Batch of 4 targets.
Target 1
Amino acid sequence: MSVQEAKSGNSTSAVSRSEDGVLARVLGGSRQYGTVFLLGILILVFALASDAFFTWTNFKSILITQTVIACVTFGVMLPLIVGEFDLSVGYMVGFIAMLGAWLAGHGWAVILIILVMLGVGALIGFINSILIDRTHISSFIATLGVGIILQGFTQGLSGGSVLTADIPRVVIDIGREYAGPVSISVWITLGLIVALFYLLEHTPLGRSWYAIGGSEKVSYLAGLRTKRLKSAAFALGGLLVGVGAIFALGQNGSASPSFGPELLLPAYAGAFLGVTTYRGGYYNVIGSIVGILVLAVGFNGLSLVGVPFWIQPVFNGTVLLVAVLAARAETRKVRVGA
Amino acid sequence: MTGIAREERGAIDSSGAVVAPEGPALAIEDISKQFGEVQALRSVSVDFMPGQVHGLIGANGSGKSTLVKVMSGVHSPSSGSLRFAGETRTTLAPPARANALGVRVVHQEAPLIDTLTVLESVAIFRGYEHDPFGRVRWRRLRRQTRELLERMEVHVDVDELCASVRPADRAGLALAIAMGDRFAEGADPDAIRLLIVDEVTAAIPDSETQQHLQRLRRIADEGVAVVMVTHRLGELDYADDVTVLRNGRVAYRQGSGPRCSVSELVAEMVPESEEVITGAVETPAKRRPVLSLWESAAPIEVAQVERESGAEVLSLERIAGEELRDVSLTARSGEIIGFAGVQHAGINELPLILSGSIQRGGGEIVVRGKRMGKRVVPAQLIRAGMTTVPSDRLREGGVASLSVAENVVLPDLRKYWHKRSTYRAVVDGVIKALDVRPPKRTTALGELSGGNQQKVLLGKWLALRPAILCLDDPTYGVDPAAREIIFEAITDAAELGVCVLFFSTEPEQLCRLCDRVLILEQGKVAGELSGDDLNIQTLTESHSI
């Protein structure tokens, strides 16, 4: 018995049943839907506190501003699923938006601009994965390095100023135009959510990504081509960041050299919040979307209620910590194989 | 080697530097220790004399570790007494007290931090001396550490990083840290009376063990009683006295008389025959777990599979690696081939090579007529029919955070896409055939007991109907009930034509399951046992030397 414990000590202690946290029970009984519950409470509270909150116009604006964040969140979530960090996404979205604006300024056709923006995103993701797997630099450092380089290129392309000239009509329409009740970018994001959900939950590719995140070594020994699969996750993540950059370029109608880096932390907050929802203990699409909405509704509601500006980051940080603590029993399990 | 050791000691003796005090440093008198139902030690009495190296040997579960823990103050004996330095006590516990009395224990794994220098690693244990301003007295520390290492004959640079210190020197450093209170500058020569070294040489390559054993010899020559727990009987050449434990009893004591031969020692170590037999009682109704598993996915014709058995499925030609030098082998379907050997004989490396976890240094692997490339990834081996259940269950075997079902289908994900019913049938087949408990598809692998984890991982590969199943120490940390099921599955798989390669450190298991057992020694096949030659006695003998 003691031998057994000694050898599997890591695992047994890590998965030993910890009692359900008090916070978990406070946050809606079922741990899996604590964040959804929180979203409901927030909507209710803000609807009572502010007349402007519970209106269709307000909801539309919340949704449209979250499309870019959603894409960047997917861009960090896919590497997280295979067990790696991608810290370059903030700089990446800024760089790709700037690249699009620069190409537009140089008279490129709109279809080419869109393809280049998507392709460059995938390429940067791919480069990140190559750096991590071939040179064995930790993903933290490799992607941070790539991100800083990208920031330099962004500055270079911009020449120090905001590029506004000749942004194609199509790109602006994707960002701003409405089709039915919500804007085109919201529809596209919804489509991405459905596609990603299917890919992650119901295809061999998605299942192998989760297996790699659980244990890369085991997956490799089970015959998975782990390096290729990880590259695919990074490249798809980069491609989705490219989609986010198109949305951003369209919504802003311009590309600013300072845009991008500030999206990194909200994206990670969304992905981490997502772990607490839907499939407890795993990074997942539905959970991430709920996480993003919680933060967005909180942000929007608090500004409508008129709290001082500094309350908002405090709120966001608190939500993240409380939600993760509440779901701790679940998140602990996820760490076992990592 | 014996000659050299004895001569050196003689030189010290004749110089008159050390005069051993009278009486044992530690006398164990009629000690028993009980853990619940289990009697770990039964009236054990041993004397450990100052100036002597005392070899303590015994099979797994013989009570060696319990005795060491009683001596080091980890456990209190249930009855009996300990006479330490002339004073009779009922216990040495807690460990801090045993330590204060002058007992030191050195374990297999040296307590070194790879990212620190030797100097810093020693100072962590010996303490940092600082001046009134809190600055560490580096120069003095460096000098003292150098002197200590010199005295212990550990030849490493104190500024070297621990990560780059060779295994034998790591063991030497562990000794220096443990013995510092006696061998450091100005230390009390009575500070340490008893040193216990617990299978330290297991982590050292054969070529470097002598240096370490000579260090132990010199420590004993300074008047310390040294207890050497070991699996390698060859090392007993350095011991003055030998005690063999079996089933918690002293089975053999050399005392001051002449020592019996190595094969007689082995005979003393082997558990009584009736105990072995009771462990291997045939189950009345023979279960066919693998057959039922294979039938659960799609009906197969047993007759056809069984007819194929005897065909050559695996051929290894002069496999070499870090430890392996030259291993060749031809394996046929339906065979169970065992592998035995001491650590660093290659017994740990071969399964890693066969699973694709590490690359081989040379030689050819041919699986079912298919020659594997110079660099081979697991995917290629698996496709050819070669599967491996590794010894490190959670790091290499299964994904702890994934469910039982997801672990089972991991090697063959594509087959199950949009085939929900096949998926369920196979996973349920594994659960039922191997009696996985709880019988649920959705339990996370990490939440299962060791035995049930192993059943799932075995089922994961068996579900692929492999040609070859390589098992690396498959019963480590597995409870007896699960072990029986795993053995049943292994036997059944072989009957269905799977070629099983079975790596184990337990002679009983090898004898019971295998058709033949290859003995690895220094990276080569040193011998093969089969038929009547394959018994616990012969295996234990070849295993321990």
Note: Residues 13 and 381 of chain B are 60 Å apart (CA to CA).
Target 2
Amino acid sequence: MGKRRTVLLMVGVLAAVSLAGCGGASGEKTGAKEKVRLMVWSPSEDQSKDSGQWLQNSCEDFAELHPEWDITFVYGIADEATAANQVAQDPVASADVFMYANDTLTIMTDANALAKFGGKYREEIETTNSPEVLESLVKDGDLYGVPFTTNTWFMYYDKSVFSEEDIKNLDTMLEKGTVSLPFTNSWYLPSFYIGNGCTLFGDGTDESQGVDFGGEKAAEVTDYLIDLAANPNFEIDADGSGLAGLRDGSINAIFSGSWDANAVKEALGENMGAAALPTYTLNGQKKQMTAYAGSKAIGVNPYSKNMVAAVELAVYLGSADAQRTHYELRNVIPCNTELLEEEDIAADSLVSAQNDTFNRTSILQPFVAKMNNCWVPVENMGKGIRNGSVTHENSLQQTEDMNEAMNSDGI
Amino acid sequence: MAAAKYKSAKTKRFVNNTIVHVSLAILAFIWVFPIVWVVLTSFRAEKGSYVSTFLPRSYTLDNYIKLFTDTSILNFPRMFMNTLIIAFFSCLIATFYTLAVSYCLSRLKFKLRKPYMNMAMILGLFPGFMSMVAVYFILKAAGLTEGNLIRVALILCYSGGAGLGFQIAKGFFDTIPYAVDEAAILDGCTKWQVFTKVTLPLSKPIIVYTVLTAFMAPWLDFIFAKVICRANSDQYTIAIGLWKMLEKEYIDSWYTSFAAGAVLISIPIAILFLCMQKYYVDGVSGAVKG
């Protein structure tokens, strides 16, 4: 008798638990409002009091726009560069909405951890962004995020040393002042090769075409780089030496991105200039330095329990209003096409430098899997030139070796 | 004649001593050099990660002050407390595990003894982080990957495997004569009493060694903390915080504070070692009575 009662009790408890479980999953309704819990991940500056709590404020604004939901926000810290790894590790226990850099897109799509945007959301995103930016978030025809900024590097220079005319050409600049570039960093060095017609995976998406960093056109560039490294007015930027040089005046121009804007402003003050990449003179001809570029975007977790709210929030965080406050609070350079036409933003040299680089002097950084083989060989080329093992005598062979290494899967 | 001989022996000794001391001084300089550099950098007033001079041009305490006051982006005091709590409890549990397992394997004769030692040997050959993702999912299934329970999860991670690291302590226990145990048992001790009242008091050096290693492992670990904390920034340990300071967005403004943090994390280890050193010396000098 006692036993049977216990069994009945247990069945009852189990039933109650499972029912409660269902209730939690489908979202309880209190009155007319639907309870929604959204977990949002962003870099810590977006949530810090010192820089205006952009994320919290934007999320609260979003909640006001949607009175039909009673939203509880849960915030977590994950910067754009590493969010993909966190999400791919365990999508089910990850944020509903997060920010990521577009070169990490395949990490998440491979783990089936990134939702596609379609229908009216995709249309809305497409009308407010340039095709180049959108292209950085499209894989096999599907759109995987709401872009909120472009991600590339450009040039900071001292206006008291270089004129508007000087900064159009690297070699002219080298006659007037000292220039520093992260020569041994393979995010920067390929810009010279790409400028002289070297290509990566066809238009950047066709893995089968491979990398073309070989032949006469690449060897010419290697020869140019050997001379560049030997130029007394050129300094190799490593471990922050470029920025330190700007501070003490020994260096007059560096190549970096928007993350260093405040430090450069502090170092140069009124003389701070920012511009798209210059050309360089190769055998008498002007060639355009061409950077890798990408974007940062807001992604949505396909395992989100409140899909509609999550997608709406992502679109809101990437909207013109949110991008404007992001720009005002944290200098995050907007990419919304309507916003870029507004006067104060169009007048900001930092914004025009970055977007000019993105539109004119860059290629989309390929995110095919084989791109992973392309970093170390270029870095080794930079180091080889620095330490003198790559010379004019063996430059052709060394360049071919680099090309071969970039095209091989071996380590 | 005799005086001359005496003098030459003295000179010889002087020359020998000079050579030894100079070479020791050079080696000491090389070893201490990086540490001095980190300490100097932590007091450096110039910003940025790169400086062209070895000695800072001006000194300041601001880097330390910044660590404890500028908590909006990287909350160092909280990370420090998190790590201290985790390391303290891991240390207690892991020390007990290690010593208990070592005692059993050294003193008790049971069937699984040999197989267990072989198994531990083989398991010890695999790097711990191989099982990292599996550990994460097990902890998640147990509900330990959210909020403050992350600390419990990390304590479990750091102390759970301690029973496999018994080799050194067991080797030490083996040197204590069995006759001591037998005498204690004749006097009416249980196995537990033999362990706590006879073996442990005779093994201070190895206890000190175990405590030190058990404290340092969680104090310095990065990889498990990173995988288990994920986006919960309020649970970050110091290792994650210091790593964050070197990311490209922060490195320029946080580099000198990073050095300050590196100096600060060495303090608890130094204190622990200084406190334990006394017993360490006592243990070595008071040899085991046979």
Note: Residues 2-26 of chain A form the longest helix (25 residues).
Target 3
Amino acid sequence: MTLAITARSGEAAGRRGTPLFTPALTAATARRVLAQLRHDPRTVVMMLAVPSVLMILLRYVLDRPLALDRLAPEYIGVFPFVIMFIVTAITTQRERARGTLERLMAMPLGRLDLLAGYALAFGFVACVQVTVVLVISLTWLGVTLPGSAVPLAVVAVLDAVLGMALGLFASAFARTEFQAVQFMPAFVLPQALLCGLVVARADMTPVLRWLSDVLPLSYAVDAMQRISASPSWTAAITADVLVILAFTAAALVGGALTLRRRTR
Amino acid sequence: MPEPAVLAPAVAAPVVVGSDLVVKRGGHVVLDGLTFTIGGGQVTGLLGPSGCGKTTLLRTLVGVQVITAGSVTLLGLPAGHPVLRARVGYATQEQAVYTDLTLRENLRYFGTVLGLRGAALTGAVAKTIAALDLTGLDKRLVGTFSGGQLARAGLAVALLGEPRVLMLDEPTVGLDPVLRRDLWGLFHRIAADGAAVLVSSHVMDEAARCDHLLFMRDGRFLAQASPAEMLRQTGATDLEDAFLRLARAPVAPGDGQTAGDGPMAGDGPMAGGPVAGGTA
């Protein structure tokens, strides 16, 4: 056995420690996550179909075109967020439980390689997921928007990626898959209640309003409400998007900090 | 086996050096002041009952377990040093492979993480699959593997980067005897290429297959020696008997932990034996 050890694992890289992030390893991790999904067609079908099925349900439950035009964009922002959260929380918890995370942490893989790899792979799935639900909403369900569908699609994908990042972060606090599943109601449902979907944020008592202000989903829904009310992109939408991106980055960095190479 | 050949490498080329190593987990002492060396070019057996601290010792050497006191170096670097991440192979008892990927996808991913690219990666994957007799299974999902195949898939990942130090936690538990013999042959071939191979086991009949032994009990080493030396020192007929005699012998505090050429126990059956390592 005399294979050469390549430069990356050599002394030069090692002196400074394993880099937090290496493009080739991030890409390899994203490919690996997508390969795992490819071998699990049932999960793929559920990830792609569930938001659309929920939209179709919403359409017939409401049964009023005007109400649907107002509510559909908000839900297009929330459904992929919720599904990405739960899928990611469980996937990464499984990685911890099966020992593959410990193995990777004992290898020269950067902590951000793992998180960014997941983000890329699930971000790609989110794009497909949002495209499917948008196409169905705008054609079959007859949702009409004041302007182009592109801002809606972009923000919906960002919401899904935000859900994924929060799921990654939350999974660090789950000891078992059972606990990870419970994070869905624990992390997501309070946000769903406070984000302006059920009651307008302006109508909430001050304490609830403050709570709502610090929860990421509020900004996701706010952006969607503004997009469905305005024919063009506005500065307020940009502000919402920046907050969404900031939460996503914070959750990814927080997730990286919870990945420990050593345990006590 | 001629004695010098057995004893010399551990002293001449220590790849792993532990010194007064203490590890506490949850307020409980798991490793209680271990001092030892593990040589390159030989297979060292870490033998002891379940729960005696074997896995914690391996995790410490890999660098994923925080050390409470003392030190361990591998290839001259402290355990867990980033340079070691591509040079130390580790196979846990739970195989730690992706069951929803094929064997080839698993090996290609872990190989990439270890820094292998292109032809070197393809070559390493093919070689590892052949070495573990997994040929023909490379396109199957690991989740469909039998227990023995799964165990070898886990080992394959540990072997991928041609590690200089290879640590295997109970790699042959529950495997068919033919497969077990083949794997021990493989471990010796890897050691013959210069690697330090450390294999843990709670099954005493595996001890005879090792070049060097670490007998462990309750977080301490009872003895460190070659199998032949172990029998000679204890006067036992087999290694299980040797372990029992050592376990019975009262071990004085601070004694019986020393890296040396022979088993050491303060008193008891071996008092007056030819080797007296002491703690000096």
Note: The interface with chain B takes residues 1-11, 13-18, 24-25, 28-29, 31-32, 35-36, 39-40, 98-100, 102-109, 261-264 of chain A (CB under 8 Å).
Target 4
Amino acid sequence: MIAYVLRRILLLVPIALVVGTVAFLLLHVIPGDPAAVMLGPEATPEQVAALRERMGLDEPLAVQYPRWLARLARLDLGTSIFLDKPVTEAIRERVGPTVQLALYALLIAVAVGVPAGVVAALHQDRLLDRALMLFAISGTAIADFFLAILLILLFSVTLRWLPSGGYVEFSVDPVGHFQSMLLPAMALGLSIAGLPARLVRSTLLEVLREDYIRTATAKGLDLEAVAFRHALRNALLPAVTVLGYALGDLLGGAVVVETVFGLPGMGQLVVNSIARRDFPVIQGVVMVFAGIYLLCNLLVDVLYVYLDPRVRYAGG
Amino acid sequence: MTSTPDQSTGAEPRRGGTLRVALTGEPPNLDLHQTTDSIVLLVTGHMYETLFTWDERYEPVPLLAESHEVSDGGRRILVRLRQGVPFHNGEEMRAEDVIASIERWGRVVGLGQGLMAVTESLTAVDPYAVEFRLREPFGTFPTALSRALQGCAIYPKSVLDRSDDTRLAEFVGTGPYRFVEWLPDRHILLERFDGYANPPGETSGYAGHKGQYLDQLEFIPVPNEASRVAGLRSGNYHYLETISTDHYPTLKDDPAVAVDLLPPDAWLNIVLNLRSPITGDLQIRRAIQLALDHEPIMQAAFGEDFYELTPTLLPGAAAWYSDAGADRFNPRQPDEARRLLESSGYDGSPLRILTTQEIQQEYNAAVVFKQQLEQVGFTVDLQVYDGATLSDLRDDETAWEAYLATASFRPDPVLRNLTCSATGWWCTPEKDELLAQLQTESDFEKRVEIWAQVQERFYEEVPRLKIGDARRILVRSPKLHGVGPTELQPDFSNAWLEK
Amino acid sequence: MPAGRAGAVARARLRSRPRGWRATYVRDRRRAWYRVLLSSRVAILALAFLIGVVLTSVLAPLLAPADPQVANPAVRLRGPSAEHWLGTDDLGRDVLSRLLYGGRISLLVGTCVTVVAVAVGAVLGLLAGYFTWLDGLLMRLLDGVMAFPGVLLAIAIVVGLGPGVDTVVIALALVYTPVVARLIRSTTLVIKRMPYVEAARCVGLSNGAILWRYVLANSVSPLIVQATFIVAYAILAEASLSFLGASVNPEVPTWGNMLRDGQRLLSRAWWVALVPGTMLFLTVFALNILGDLLRDALDPRSQERREDAVVK
């Protein structure tokens, strides 16, 4: 078990290297000069050149790359050109809303998806099952920004129940915080709720056919009670793990949803930084996102090994 | 005349509250000297002040200056400063601060360079008086040093000593609101400056008394226009920086929103590259001028009721109105255009138009522009970029033939950059001479005449194509009152919020 | 599904048949997958819809009432009417025409991305699964690419290389190739241990022939299912890219950039956004349904499961 964990952690290193290299390569292909953007259209070429020199943008790529790798090893992600502060600081300021959004979305996905999957399994092939599965597929089929817009149109503009954007910190106003996060979390969460729903349904169905369940029903226990006690536990595991792997989609979806709702998270940071050609920030955020994804995968894999004895004894 | 919405309300202003303003994006910096981006003036107009500013008739009046005397045939200008005006950091504004600020502005800004070019010396004759000795008279002195995009904000010398020409060490000014914090992508926060030295006189335009009713001004970047509008309708924001006039029909019936339709004071123009082999040819530029039908372009950009077609290059400034060159404005002669194009030897190389979808009006106009050019025989390449790449490419004279821009309000023609160094590179000695005269001449009548000549040349030499004047809509919460003039960016110093 | 005695017999036969991958060789006792698929009304509906979308997109030049790119500002932002069945957008362009042409890009991007991702991914997966010495290297590389959130990776590539269908296809293919590679790798890992593969090797078949005739042939089913889903993901991803302004040239209509244009004016002219949004939704929805049903039809175990359900 420990060996497995250690092995997985070690494997992260070459992957991280690949991630870092790809990030570096990609961003030096982008045209556009951040210095010119920052100084505005009426800056003189001398001012632009001066800023470029300050930022070290003129060095050849072969020099910038090893420097980049060395800094990565120190977890130094460089300095943002536009924001004039270390990238890690810029990210730290913004990581809050994004992580919260992802977490709330996950919660909604589980809170909506798992019960839906259970109900669907219990009513297999009947109307409720088909309807719920239809909703599940609809969620994944709809573009999350389209869902976001429709939700705003309904709940903000027409009903005026919820704000259409902006971010209120929890420490400042807890109620306002949840009000401002509800719609974005719904837009993101509902669009992936289909995944756990379908997975719970199918694994529940599989488990329900197992012999030990048949024995229990034969003995006269109520099917629903049996399902909840024995089957659900087994069905939950793959559902949760699939959400862990879906984190990549969540983070990508957060980028778009944050734009629609004006949330000051990492997604918006990236989109703005792309427009501003703020290389260090783009590199940094992409690295952080990838890092989060890798870590989550590691956690999920370890959790899976821990929880599922079959895998553990097979050597992992 | 300034258009100051909602001055008629009789209610008593309430002190307190935080104003939430939704911006179209993030300002590149908070240094007024650096850039003509209007968003910078919107925010910093409350933080910094200039020596002069505009009253409700758009006449320059003293602000940080107390008075100024012109003598010696216009070659000596003595500016007396108001005394006891504190900066946000507690220091008092003195001559040395003014000199340091003007010198920096003179290095960075085109108009400032023009002033410094004729300045032999700039000295402090006493702690509250500054003296300019000029080689020749500079008639537009107070105008040049007035509130403007990229205006000459007065910063403390102690801050400038720690700054360089591209970056301020700190954001300190004398204005009614002081800088608190800037959390990029979250907000820029200003709070009331309690030590503010209120200028004498009644409120008039941007000049005179400032009520400072609001406790705080919060500027929030919301690049998504639909989110901005939705945010205003649901009460999240009190004021929107700018939105498309397409929202007018839905918003004017919404009780949660107060909409003001302003007279047209900005114009849509197409800047041509006079250093390109295609658009450098006057005959081709004339062909473009004849080919266009301005109405569909303006309709596409602004919608049916929100534009006007006038030839003046300074809409909104009635005193400067001129119809010089009007016979060449929107002539609509596509057959003639085709003929001119053919006989010019145009070889069919693509005419590149730069545009961005970040400014929807300009993009829409570009699409129609392209269509109309193609109808007379041009080959057109419409290149759509994001704002950053666009800014880059505009400086490259080999990269484009035309781009779309909106020229916003200027109360005086010297503040409109039509010099040789401006993008487009319209460099003719006679025109440059006229512009220099415009700066140095002080007699108003004479200047109107000079400007009319400039406008005449504008339509003859076609460095740009003025398409039409655009109306703006001003969208705010009905609980917000007292918003000042908006042509040079709204002034919230006298604004207040209902409970 | 057969019920009653005939059903009981059939079920008994099925339960006794061998499990696992060998089952794919025992074809005659299962119903052909296309029969299973076509027996479902939903599948027929989804298939018909998709064929309809493809046809109308391909025939767009014939069907579209107007040129999708010609701006006609005088009639901008008009609602659905006799002249413009789905209204006009803010440049006065006919929404129906743009919808038809927009489908071309969305479908083209979806198909091309899938073809590339499947082709490249299958090769990589086969190599990684079959040749152990390549596995480590390839997997690290693919894991590295997969660690990037797809949207961001695609944005960076498209912004870097400039807008255009080719760039979008490259970007999205890069995002989805690892998915295919992983799938093929895992099926390869299983298949290469099968006795018949060993037998083939003993007989002297070259690695290439083995890969082609045995490994790939047996991976086709899950590959088809996965491909269907990738088409759906790619179409949605392109819409996201268009929405963020990182896709094809905005003059060219795609459902994604129509959504982007329309979302600005949702309360003023709902049809501009709702029409492409709904179309996008329905297409992806149909693809998802098709994928699910294909999966059920092609996977022998789930067939068995379906038959068992009758017992309950």
Note: Residues 37 and 297 of chain C are 6 Å apart (CA to CA).
